[in-house]
Design brief:
With 138 residues, this protein is mainly alpha-helical. Among the domains are: 21-59, no CATH class; 79-134, no CATH class. The protein is 61% helix and 0% strand. Residues 1-10 have a biased composition (Polar residues).
Length: 138
């Protein structure tokens, strides 16, 4: 059964314009926000651990892990040889397995781009050759 253009897949679903409960709660709290913030800070300063955690989480959010730059000396020319160099660096402990995984994924993506570029070049070369051949130049 396929969907028809202009028809809902769930006609008995939520009507258009209906607000999400979280949106309703935000709108309900918005006019009281300054007072609520003052109260949370006041409670935190009085020693309420939950209020303190709430305030600190807003001031200093949790850090997200970030990858550090990695430098590898590549001896190989081909993408395959470069991939082997990455695996050697992981096996020697020069880079972490996660870093190696990211580098291999980037190398694979780059290899895909190179392959597409080469395919397009061959296609263009073929079209040029075909035009010359059909044009009676040769």
């Amino acid at each position: 059964m396929s969907f028809k253009p202009g028809q809902s897949g769930n006609p008995a679903g939520r009507p258009k314009g209906t607000k999400d409960k979280r949106t309703e709660f935000r709108e309900l709290l918005r006019p009281h926000a300054p007072d609520l913030i003052k109260k949370a800070v006041e409670m935190a300063l009085e020693g309420d651990a939950t209020a303190l955690k709430l305030c600190l989480d807003k001031l200093i959010p949790n850090l997200r892990p970030q990858a550090e730059p990695v430098s590898i000396q590549f001896n190989g020319e081909s993408l395959l040889e470069k991939g082997q160099e990455i695996l050697k660096a992981v096996s020697k402990g020069e880079i972490t397995p996660e870093e190696g995984n990211h580098l291999l994924a980037a190398l694979a993506n780059y290899g895909g781009l190179v392959g597409k570029e080469q395919s397009l070049k061959r296609h263009r070369d073929y079209q040029s050759f075909d035009a010359i051949f059909k044009g009676g130049i040769l």
